[in-house]
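Regression test attached.
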Amino acid sequence: EPEVTQTPSHQVTQMGQEVILRCVPISNHLYFYWYRQILGQKVEFLVSFYNNEISEKSEIFDDQFSVERPDGSNFTLKIRSTKLEDSAMYFCASSGLVYNEQFFGPGTRLTVL
Amino acid sequence: AQSVTQLDSQVPVFEEAPVELRCNYSSSVSVYLFWYVQYPNQGLQLLLKYLSGSTLVKGINGFEAEFNKSQTSFHLRKPSVHISDTAEYFCAVSSNFGNEKLTFGTGTRLTIIP
């Protein structure tokens, strides 16, 4: 069964450093999403991406964040200068042209020290 | 914009007893509704979804939910729970335009008491 994969599973970084979280969506999917979950809190939408551009972004997704689909398979989330409050689990998701559901990856736990 | 309310942050239930996890939503447009489960230190797994059609939807692991448009609810039920059902359960909503963002509730932690 096809699945969304994410790397790394856990990333530890120093405050102010740049991080790139990587996702490989399901191969024939066209819509891609990033969500985050701060420990003990609900899952929050960050950004959606379609046809090589951002479809929608939340207030959380400020200028420190960017997304990219550098090739036909990867979908990345970059945080330019990490803050302590960026520590969270980051989930990637994808969905197909005919909307049925969003398929979530296992997440990357980002710890900012 | 949509919002989701899960009033019960924690629900303890004895093993083999029935359970209902409540979810209410708010939206100015028609919606799709979802329940996701998150086991400790794991990602999100879809339990079930309502897109259209029958208001009673059945999902994996014996769970079902009923969409009630007049009460704007989508409560999750299981007639007999097992220890393995211990997890966090999230209700989520999106507009029915397709491929829209999901808005999640704050989650309900289901604890099964042996």
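Expected vs. actual: identical. Chain A touches chain B through 24 residues (CB under 8 Å).
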